[in-house]
TrEMBL record:
Subunit structure: Homodimer.
Native source organism of the sequence: Panicum miliaceum
Domain of life, per lineage: Eukaryota
Chain ranges of the Purple acid phosphatase C-terminal domain: 548-607
UniProt-recorded name of the protein: Purple acid phosphatase
Alphabetical keyword list: Glycoprotein, Hydrolase, Secreted, Signal
Cell inner membrane is among the record's keywords: no
Amino acid sequence: MAARVQPSSSLLVAAAAVAVAALMAMAVAAADSTTDNIQPLSTLRMQAAQVAMDSGAVIHASPDVLGKNGEDSAWVTVNFTAPAPSAGHWVALFSPADFGLSVGAGASTNAAAGGEGPAAGLPTAPIKYMFANISPSFMSSGSGNMSFLVINQRSDYAFGLFSGGKDNPKLIAISNKISFANPKAPVFPRLSLGKEWNEMAVTWTSGYNIDEAYPFVEWKMKGEESPKRTPAGTLTYTRRHLCGKPANAEGYRDPGFIHTAFLKDLWPNREYSYQIGHELADGTVVRGKPSTFRAPPFPGQDSLQRVVVFGDMGLGQRDGTNELAGFQPGAQVTTDRLIQDLPNYDAVFHIGDLSYANGFLAQWDQFTAQIEPIASRVPYMVASGNHERTYHDTGGFYTGNDSRGECGVPAETYFYVPAENRGKFWYAADHGMFRFCVGDTEHDWRPGSEQHAFLERCFASADRKHQPWLVFAAHRPLGYSSNDYYAAEGSFAEPMGRALQGLWQKHRVDLAVYGHVHNYERTCPVYENTCMDGGKDDKGSYSGTMGGTVHVVAGTGGAKLRDYSAGPWPQWSVARDKSFGYVKLTASDHSSLRVEFIHSADGAAHDAFNISRDYKDVLACTVDSCAPHSMAS
């Protein structure tokens, strides 16, 4: 795209991602509109729900048993009939199948207590839902059918048919129970870089605690005959780990057990096969799906290296559920593009706002299932965002409630990162010629803080003659963004964010990439609001000493896109694109880096720039980058 030309919005991407989106939009009643950035499950008033079984209502799901051949997901057909069909009827998937109560006893229990009518309130939210009028025949005949994509989440399932819309739901029929052949099976492996360059962490989820079965990974290098077996550690969390509602209330769901094994002494760039598994007490072995990965390059190794960076994806749904509010309309199309592009990159950095579960914890399983085709093949590194961590009075830098009670617990458990303390989500990651210093913007980063000291060490310890490409990545824009709400604040960044400018300049950080803002924007090499490129017209290439850091906002993974500030562009803003997509970094050697913004819709680069320089250009002094030195020869 041309520099400083704002393209038109690409909000039609969602239709390409989910084939049923247009049909769903027609089916949703006007009263179903919700505010942007509201988790769709939170719009269901389950605390007001009534169990009011209707003998004229019927719902049935098939097949009864899923995953007979070891599959971790399956399509389920739901047929239903309701008297007096209306736009307020909806179908929801619940797990466990008893809805967390003795269904059918609500009316008698309430009557015995002296109340009138059915008891109100269901103790748990559904995993997903769809309005009945998605089925074309429902409004005319009272009968319909729809398909749900169900993943293995360690328990049985049942579907509920509701009337009364989302505000006054009445449970009028319950389906038969369905379940996976082995609900406890190991599922959804996700790779991440370890603390050493030649180490890969493999994390997965199962229903097996350590007293039931021993978790392990079997793995071998391509060409080897016999695999080796590496044991895994096991973690979980409970309601008491969580900080508030809905995460520890109607949104809670047992997370099962999360296992991590560390595959060590990998040979650089060699291909490995692996398979997660559990050995039961009787010697029986239960295995997950096999997969492969390529080991990371040695730090400083001169070879083609490609890394993808983005933020703010969220949960897509191939069956169209939960997307009625357009909560993350681009999540599925970005996921599909990343799957298609797998041969062309080596690692992913998803820099915050991962699942947008917002306290509805079943969606973390849904998210790990969504990214599994990617995360099982390449390292899937994550950062902490406000929707993972922020909750008032829990030691974070912000006092809001964006995580809706999660306070970082699910994200820090479901995903391994090579941090000293996973409760403090900052860490260093080496990938060949790249050094990534990943910040945690939900904790204090200012001078004097623990995180500031870490970032100083991370930047300073990069050997720039072998790792020339130094990248800072974090969720909230601490540098530069002309997003509408930052402009309204007058900060054009997270307030106090630019406290790190001295570090970026001192250590000649090449690139800073952020999420949080749901659009794409990049700057010139900038320091203290000033372009350091000498006013050059060509913003697509930079050579020699950079003089400043290029800041890129890429919160474009799937959450609903946002506008830029009105009026003239700030002089440091050189490219904008309100489209779903991701940033791709390609280092072809120690002197050449290409940065592209790839559209999820077509896989093409719609903005790009190149950096070309030698080691002496990294060493050269620029404004505020060098300490005072002696004039002696």
